[in-house]
Model the fold of this input.
Amino acid sequence: MPTVAVFDMSGKKVSDLALKDDIFGITPSAPAMHMMVVNYLASQRQGTQSTLTRSEVSGGGKKPWRQKGTGRARQGSTRSPQWTHGGIALGPKPRDYRFSVNKKIRRLAMKSALSTKVAGGEMIVLDKLAFDEIKTKQMVKVLDSLETGKKVLIVLPEKDDVVYRSARNIAGVRTTLVGQLNVYDILNCDTIIVLKDAVSKIEEVYA
Done:
């Protein structure tokens, strides 16, 4: 059963926390994590790119010249792909790049990502994170005291506008909720800061 230290906002260790072995201590599955990362990135694609085919560009209604006797190649329209201002052959059209991944793989990928961060010492558990006012300097001070990396993901148990707005202007720092946590964000950060209450929620969801 993996055990991590719990810190306060000043960076001092206050206690130890035992994590559930079947969530934070499994052998990571690289294929599952890769599939979920590809799934996430595919879902971010707008898929709105579009080119005009020969039937959609204007003009070209008349045959340029007669079929035979000119010595030139036969042509049926000036809007064929080989003509200047002609249509595009086999060009992209609007499409949805999303694809579904079954629940078993999604859960395995999430547990693998969390276990990877714990095994690598890149997960910090914070007993609480609360500010009296929206202050970016205070958030920077907390991050400095915890000695985090450049890219930080803060996982909150519930919505907190003061924390969110204090962190949003710091380069490389993102905040998210337990219900919005995804494999890509976990793997894409140097350090993941999870509030103690959020840890219990994660264990409740993925137990």
